[in-house]
Design brief:
Blueprint lengths: L8 H4 L2 H6 L9 E4 L5 E5 L5 E6 L3 H4 L5 H26 L21 H15 L2 H8 L10
Antiparallel strand pairs: 1-2, 2-3
Length: 148
């Protein structure tokens, strides 16, 4: 048998005694369980794992070799609860203030018009036509015709 997966002495103690030694750090934690209730996983609201617990009497109902399946199911349940809580918080959050106009062009979700496109092209062209920007872009180009 693989020595890494043997039961520890702690596993042989009565589970109620082990659980009574723990403080209850479950404030503000979300709880997920596998469908059989063998494993409980607690996560923060952002989905960070905080604890994994086995149900009292799990040894009588579950083969230790199948615990990984129960842990994965409980972890999935807990993280889905965290994701649902985050989505609900976003859904119920007050709307953000609308974007302010930038540089004379109003922010909008509407498609740009031909006039908007021309204004952008003219602004970019004017910026490229002056000073260091023009020099930086034109310095690498040869005036020789193509194909020569």
């Amino acid at each position: 048998m693989d020595q890494r997966w043997q039961l520890n002495e702690e596993d042989l103690e009565p589970e109620a005694a082990r659980n009574s030694e723990r403080s209850d750090p479950t404030d503000d934690l979300l709880r997920g369980q596998d469908p059989e209730g063998v494993v409980t996983v607690r996560v923060t609201g952002t989905g960070e794992f905080r604890s994994v617990e086995l149900a009292p009497g799990w040894k009588g109902t579950t083969d230790p070799r199948s615990l990984s399946t129960h842990v994965v199911a409980a972890a999935t349940d807990a993280t889905m609860r965290a994701a649902t809580a985050q989505a609900e918080a976003v859904r119920t959050a007050p709307p953000r203030t609308p974007a302010q106009p930038a540089g004379g062009i109003a922010a909008s979700d509407e498609p740009i018009t031909a006039a908007d496109a021309m204004q952008l092209i003219n602004t970019v062209s004017a910026g490229l036509a002056c000073g260091p920007v023009r020099d930086r872009f034109s310095s690498g180009y040869s005036k020789a015709p193509l194909g020569v």
